[in-house]
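In response to reviewer comment 3 from the previous cycle, which asked for concrete evidence that the modeling workflow produces usable outputs, we include below a single protein chain processed end to end. The sequence was submitted unchanged, and the resulting structure tokens are shown without manual editing.
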Amino acid sequence: MKSRKITKDTESSSRRHYGDACAVAHGLDLVGERWALLVIRELMFGPKRFSDLRADLPGISANVLTQRLEGLEAAGIVMRRKLPPPAASQVYELTAWGYDCEPVLQAFGRWAARSPEHDPSLPVSPVSLFLSFRTMLDPVRARGLDARVGFRLGASTFLVRLKGGKIEVTRGSIDHADAVFIGQAAAIAAAVYGGQSLKTLAAQGVLMVEGDRKLAERFLTLFPLPAKAESMAARARRERRTD
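The workflow returned the following structure tokens.
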């Protein structure tokens, strides 16, 4: 009896639980484990196989990914289903409630982008890139723009629809796009957030544009990052100047 109680206590202590009535605390009970929010992020554009999730989250181990998927499934955020033949493979996808997490990811992303230590040149997955577009779009800069912009990232294609200062992103056909970017997500992020020119990236062979080049150039300007918060070093310098 005693050993059974010890086992139960050990299992309980291995799961994050704050024991706090605040909904923020409960939210962290649900998604506060390392990688959990990134798993949710990667499912925001539809279902994925386990192998695809691992490919887009290269730092995660198979064991940890299994644990996170099981935890999110138990919480009602993720569900499993089997695709019909000929695919007949198992995929993971968000529940309706799971998709409701996107505004949380967007608000958190906007806030974290203000960190002086945020480095937009680090690796980025395609889903992360397109979620950032939905998060960072400046409706004033996009005003009057009615266009379709396609993206061919290896075997994956995405279509961005801009109209009325708003943005829609879907996976799928880019046949009717006005301009198409061809490359990897990191190269597109370098152009949008890193200040790299299309000419430079094309010369490096990492990003090409087909179709309306002027539209492509304008597209790169639609997603300004927020102003950085003041760092401790900058604050110290400012205080020294005012002494």
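The first strand starts at residue 78 and ends at 82. We consider this sufficient to address the reviewer's concern, and the full set will be provided in the supplementary archive.
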